[in-house]
């Protein structure tokens, strides 16, 4: 492969990525998973220092709040 081929491949990839809108369901699924993992770690850390009790309700509440915040920030 020559240097000319590499440039042409990069331009094609860049053009394809910049024109792609993506599937919003993938973004929402990623938001759910990452918000849940982050909420779990926050609640675990707070329970480690004794600020809150580690439980499913607390993790779910934190995950919902994180999901809503990131959804509003990214969609506005």
Oligomer: single chain
Q: Distance N terminus to C terminus?
A: 44 Å
Percentage of residues in strands? under 5%
Order of helices and strands: HHH
Total DSSP helices: 3
Shape: elongated
- In total, the number of strands is 0
Q: What is the helix fraction of residues, given as a range?
A: over 70%
Runs with pLDDT <50, length 5+?
none
How is the topology of this model organized?
Elements (H helix, E strand, L loop, with lengths): L2 H17 L4 H25 L7 H20 L1
Helix pairs in contact: 2-3
Question: Can you put this structure into words, describing what you see?
Answer:
The protein has helices spanning 3-19, 24-48, 56-75. It has 76 residues and is mainly α. It starts with a helix and ends with a helix.
Describe, in short, the structure shown.
The chain is an all-alpha fold.
What structural keywords apply?
76 residues
């Amino acid at each position: 492969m020559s240097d000319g081929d590499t440039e042409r491949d990069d331009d094609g990839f860049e053009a394809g990525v910049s024109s792609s809108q993506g599937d919003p369901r993938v973004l929402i699924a990623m938001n759910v998973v990452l918000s849940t993992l982050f909420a779990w770690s926050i609640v675990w850390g707070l329970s480690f220092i004794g600020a809150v009790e580690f439980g499913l309700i607390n993790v779910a509440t934190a995950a919902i709040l994180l999901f809503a915040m990131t959804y509003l920030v990214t969609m506005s």
